[in-house]
Write a structure and sequence with these properties.
Elements (H helix, E strand, L loop, with lengths): L4 E6 L3 H12 L4 E7 L2 H11 L3 E5 L9 H11 L4 E6 L5 H9 L2 E6 L4 H26 L10 E6 L7 H16 L3 E5 L7 H4 L8 H11 L4 H6 L2 E3 L4 E4 L13 H14 L2 E5 L6 H9 L2 E7 L2 H16 L7 E8 L7 H8 L3 E6 L2 H9 L4 H4 L4 H14 L31
Parallel strand pairs: 1-2, 1-3, 3-4, 4-5, 6-10, 6-11, 7-9, 7-10, 11-12, 12-13
Antiparallel strand pairs: 8-9
Helix pairs in contact: 1-5, 2-3, 6-16, 10-11
Bound molecules: adenosine-5'-diphosphate and magnesium ion.
The site of magnesium ion has 4 residues, from helix 6.
Length: 422
């Protein structure tokens, strides 16, 4: 189905806006997504909604800036939209030239027929689409639009149960098995380990991003993307935790809310690692998640706290679909049986991860996800099973042959790994 053409109406006259809306209402492929009489609001709406076309009156009325000035601002700051300007009767050549210089695509002098306006809007949208396609051909690929995104928050009430290990390897496996865009977010703001465990530079972190949001009042998508680092070996994008624990306080719940909502528009999968306490930022990550993976080990205190957490999440109204339990370090001696744990938690354990120190330990110490390093291990296999649960049909095995392309070995002493900067 062809994408609908979305329209923003900007006019000082209510009557004119009503007429314009009427003209578009009967057209099935055209949709008015916003209207305003205010230049500043028009710019804000253009940035937020990125309408295909902005139909704008040359005169905005009151003490508003000239429509051409507003058009120039919009065309520079919201370049995804094209502007059609409705001009006063008898608009001369000079006006036309100024309009073109302001980034206006077409000028329609008053009085005009509704059908003329509809035709002009369609034409402008059509040209814009052709231009996008041509640009994509030059760049190589048309940027894949993220239409459906899945956010997975990994949580546990205890430290050391393997959240970070799971978050990293799940993100890497999701990338490898689905080929989709994957982002990994380290919300363990005080002692986040993802950067070191993946051998990533920590020049840009979530605390720098929080500062940007606090300064600007809102999050610019480009600034967000500029704060992600790519794990070259897998292609996973990562938002790292602050380098120092005292920077954790800079990151507030509303920052995390904005960050995660925007990531949802850019990535197919977002995997979030958390600390073992409930803070504003963690609650935001739980709330926005499509899937919460509660990670437990087979020990009494962990299970007791897990049960408590299940009850808390029930009071939040989270469904069985949303919350899934995973058991790490499956053990046979001295441990509870899976069935006993399920009865206690009143929830199914959907997957178990074996304890495999011989694979995990060198992977952690050499900063290379075990999923890449030891793809044939039992623990890597268990991650593949989790990917299939999380990603469903999408998890076709498009993974390159196991072992292909040896990842580079890390050099230098132990301390050389800390605070790596590019
Ligand atoms: N399945 C496992 N097999 C072997 N070792 C594991 C396993 N899961 C966790 N570990 C060990 O536990 C340590 C802590 O895991 P980590 O992911 O950092 O926990 P958390 O993020 O929950 O605090 C890891 O560095 C690893 O040595
Ligand atoms: Mg951790």
């Amino acid at each position: 189905m062809a994408a609908a053409i979305t329209i923003l109406l900007v006019s000082g006259e209510v009557e004119e806006r009503v007429n314009l809306k009427k003209a578009f209402l009967v057209e099935q492929d055209l949709e008015v997504v916003g209207e305003t009489d205010n230049a500043e609001e028009a710019l804000k709406m253009a940035k937020e909604k990125a309408p295909t076309v902005i139909v704008m009156d040359a005169k905005l009325g009151g003490d508003q800036p000239d429509g051409l000035l507003a058009a120039e601002q919009i065309s520079v700051q919201a370049p995804k939209s094209d502007i059609v300007m409705v001009a006063e009767e008898g608009a001369d050549n000079l006006f036309m030239r100024k309009a073109m210089l302001s980034g206006v695509r077409q000028v329609l002098p008053k009085p005009y027929d509704a059908s003329d306006l509809v035709a002009v809007v369609r034409l402008v949208a059509e040209i814009a689409e052709k231009k996008r396609e041509a640009m994509a051909a030059i760049i190589g690929t048309k940027e894949e639009e993220v239409v459906e995104s899945k956010m997975i928050t990994i949580f546990s009430t205890k430290g050391g149960v393997g959240r970070t290990l799971l978050a990293i390897n799940l993100a890497v496996a999701l990338k490898k098995m689905t080929g989709k865009k994957v982002c990994l977010v380290d919300l363990d703001l005080q002692f986040g380990d993802i950067a070191i465990m993946m051998h990533l530079p920590t020049k840009v972190t979530i605390s720098a991003l929080a500062r940007e949001i606090a300064d600007a009042g809102e999050l610019d998508p480009e600034i967000l993307m500029g704060h992600l680092v790519t794990h070259e070996e897998s292609g996973v994008s990562v938002l790292c935790a602050p380098i120092r624990p005292d920077e954790a306080d800079l990151v507030k719940g509303n920052h995390v809310d904005q960050i995660l909502r925007q990531l949802k528009e850019k990535f197919h999968y977002i995997v979030i690692d958390t600390p073992s306490y409930l803070s504003d930022t963690v609650l935001t990550a739980l709330e926005l998640a499509d899937q919460i993976l509660l990670l437990l080990t087979m020990e009494l205190p962990t299970i007791k706290d897990g049960k408590l957490m299940m009850e808390i999440m029930q009071t939040f109204g989270y469904t069985e679909e949303k919350v899934k339990v995973i058991m790490n370090r499956e053990a046979t001696t001295g441990a509870f049986k899976k069935k006993e744990i399920e009865e206690t938690l009143e929830a199914e354990v959907i997957a178990t991860i074996p304890s495999e120190g011989a694979v995990v330990m060198p992977s952690v110490n050499e900063c290379e996800p075990f999923y890449l390093r030891s793809p044939d291990s039992k623990i890597a296999e268990s991650i593949r099973e989790i990917v299939k649960i999380v990603a469903g049909e999408e998890a076709e095995m498009i993974e390159e042959a196991a072992g292909e392309g040896e990842a580079p070995k890390k050099k230098g002493g132990l301390m050389g790994l800390f605070g790596k900067k590019k």
